[in-house]
Amino acid sequence: MSAETLARWQFAITTVYHFFFVPVTLSLAPLVAGLQTAWVRTGRETYLKLTKFFGKLFLINFALGVVTGIVQEFQFGMNWSEYSRFVGDIFGAPLALESLLAFFLESTFLGIWIFGWDRLPQRLHLAMIWLAALGSTLSAYFILAANSFMQNPVGFTVDAERGRAELTDFAAVLTNPVVLVTFPHQIFASFMVGGAFLAAVGGWHLLRSGPGRTGEPTAPPVEGGPAPTVPAPTVPAPADPAPAADRSAFRTAVKVGAVTLLVAALGVVLTGDLQGKVMTRVQPMKMAAAEALYETEQPASFSVITIGTPDGQHELWSIKVPHLLSYLATGDADAQVQGIRQLQAAYEATYGPGTYSPDIPLTYWSFRWMIALGAAGAVLGAFLLWSLRGGRELRHRLWLPLLLALPLLPLFSNSVGWIFTENGRQPWLVFGLLPTAAGVSPGTTVGEVLTSMTTFTVLYGVLAVIEVRLLLTSIRAGLPDVTPRTVDEGEDAPLEFAY
Amino acid sequence: MELPTVWFGLIAVLWIGYFVLEGFDFGVGMLLHVLGRDDRERRVVVNTIGPHFDGNEVWLITAGGATFAAFPEWYATLFSGFYLPLLAILVALIVRLVAIDYRSKRAELAWRQRWDLAITVSSAVPALLWGVAFGNILRGVPIDADFNYVGGVVNLLNPFALLTGLVTLTLFLTHGAVFVALKTDGVIRVRANAFAARVGVVAAVLTVVLALWLNLEHGSTLTYATSLVAAVGLLGALGANRRGREGWAFVGTATCIALLFATAFLALFPDVMPSSLDPAWNLTTTNASSTPYTLRIMTWAAAIATPVVLAYQAWTYWVFRRRLSTSSIRDDVVLPEPAAR
Questions:
Q1: What ipTM does the predicted assembly reach?
Q2: Residue A107 domain-assigned?
Q3: I want to staple B68 with a disulfide (CB 3.0 to 4.6 A). Which of A92, B80, B190, B195 is the partner?
């Protein structure tokens, strides 16, 4: 395997992994801030408990988002040095601004928020989490602006002598039509994940403590197992895992979460529609690949499902909706949509011989999985909300797997959405300017990339196990006890010890 | 002044900010077991940096991003060239941040002991390797006509770079001990004071040797002056530490680290990464830089944002200015006895 192939795999592995944490951070930061705002405004302890409970889960997730993000910044230079030389003049600026304007804000104020419960007045302390959430959101904008340049380069010229792209209009980079639609699409998609997470965690607690299930089922004694030699210590019977007040709090969490999920889903659909039209304009090949549309059609029909030959070239069976693709791609139901073969010919005329289409089956299916998983998450969220209407309970045991699936559906929808976006750009690293193969570090050896790819894969795997187990333990522990907090200036008063 | 020169200075400031701030974080992490003998004491030690360490690390991310934006060639050569050391640093930074964040998320002693060990090791690795990396940049490494590093990893392990690594390691240990002495009370403070006095002498000797070596090879009047201030800072820190004036001791170690790295950057200028093969292949502030347009935008952003960042980060140190001790831990945090299973 070549260093280039390995570098591609490493980028795919580390980026997909990083992006399991990003949507959760982007949405849970403002959702926790919202819960804390509700507490500050109403003074109801329920909201404080929810803030601290989901705040802890947010922080467990945030840590992994940060550390896997550092890898991303280093990786451009380590594995893709030719790319860095080629676009640094443009691509580096949003990255630097992301650190300077967003990451400092996020990390510094989150630090104060974690430790400041006793040290700051209530409202000032509340402002800390909002500033951290603002930092996260800003960082999303800058990195999406950088990515959008790769999808649709704007505001630049190419200096042939130095062999690099140079920035001529930074405002154009920041207002790239692609980032203008991708940013809201991503923010809504993130809120689908965070909303589903709130709803699922709340729903699980309701299910666990529901009628007839008070108290955790005690593990049955293992038959034939050794009898305990020492009398079991008299552990006080586990308190009701969710007393009435906590049950009502979790009901609130489900409602807030599910409504967030549904509103965000609507936003995802609307922005996704806009995105498709921009994509048709700036990356027609990606749209053609998303539909496996080999020949130009007018009007073009939308493929709901097409089963093709493994190379994707020939159709075996399909369900199609006439005119729909024309409408989705352009807003006009009778418009022409270009096909892969025609685009290939046009690109060959412009860029010379080569293959200018991405992996068609991967692009086609990732596009569909993105939509299907996201839709399934929204439907499940609506069903959960409906099942709990008017104080009803979750009774069916199938709710356990359904609640487990609830946050994973939009999370994986985010993943395959990005696999679609990045794969659909191939063979380009920067569309029309730099092929992916030309961006890789020339001096880096197969051994080096293999070492780092293996290291990250193993390390990330171990961290995933630790993180998921810690999340589950913290979720199971339920709402924390909250003692009334006041600003305390006494010299001997205990402090917040988060670590 | 020309914009690439301004940005060379700004990137120097970002790295200096990173090493002054994260330097004591590394020191505190390495000293976790030396200064904290049980879990309660280790909690005090690690929480001295608790509210700050994540924000401090952003200085590194900003230094990296600014290098990418202002000197893409430097970023590309450095990161692809120093591949394996950077990988080791990355792994350490990942483990370290997770370890600090997760250590108290569960009450089991075994859980915490494992993470504490991880904090110590993952603080030592970057403390040493950043020094090695900067030693190599100063000394010059094999860079070819296309600005690609062609030296391999063994090339990076030379006496000068290793000495630089030991200097950063011992300086960060001293800096961290002084910081803990400044931020705690009781027995931990006493221990930190005593440890700073001992390791500070080692750091001082190594720093003076490095400063002489550096100045004899790349010295100018200016670098002699900055080296002198660095040395005076460290000696002053040791004197202040002896008298229990931890605030001044911290100013001293911070000055020493800042001025030592300032010396390094001054010795480097106008190169950013000299080639040991041919001076014509040196990366310089001119041939590695971005366009004036990009630099101008970045200058505006930095001029507005940097003072704001400095102000709010300084404020965090003000908010959490109180000294910590084992008695400041809330009573509701009770460790269960290690379960007999």
A1: 0.89
A2: yes
A3: A92
